[in-house]
Amino acid sequence: MRTFAYFLLFMFLATVIILLAVMLGDLGAWYFAWLIGTVLIVLVAAAGAALLDTQEDQAAAAAGTPRPRA
Questions:
Q1: Cα-based angle 69, 65, 44 (whole degrees, multiple of 5)
Q2: Domain map of the chain by residue range?
Q3: Are 53 and 70 within 8 A, CB to CB?
Q4: SS3 27
Q5: How does DSSP classify residue 68?
Q6: Which end of the chain has the smaller Cβ count within 10 Å, N or C?
């Protein structure tokens, strides 16, 4: 829960900074796209890692050898 609270805090700060950039300059749209793109690629990478982990677990279970956890 603490990590989620930090995430919300940083997203709020990023939103405020982007709004200031939009009001004060013409590069605000670029920063907004950069922020949205960065968040999106991190979420896609996390989803891919979760899917890969699940596939490896299922393959190990089908082979009858439990996969060791780190």
A1: 50
A2: 2-63
A3: no
A4: coil
A5: P
A6: C
Per-residue pLDDT at 22 exceeds 80 = no
The residue written with tokens 């405020």 in the block is 16
pLDDT per position as a tens digit, 5-15: 999 999 999 99
Q: Record the tokens describing residue 39, joined without a space.
A: 């968040």
Rounded to 10°, the helix 2-24/28-63 angle is: 150
Asked whether the CA dihedral 54, 57, 1, 39 is positive or negative, the reply is: negative
Of 57, 58, 51, 52, residue with least CA distance to 69: 57
Q: Please give the distance of CA 16 from its chain centroid, rounded to a whole number.
A: 20
Cβ pair 32, 42 in contact under 8 A: no
- State the residue for tokens 């991190």: 42
Q: Of 24 and 70, which is predicted with more confidence?
A: 24
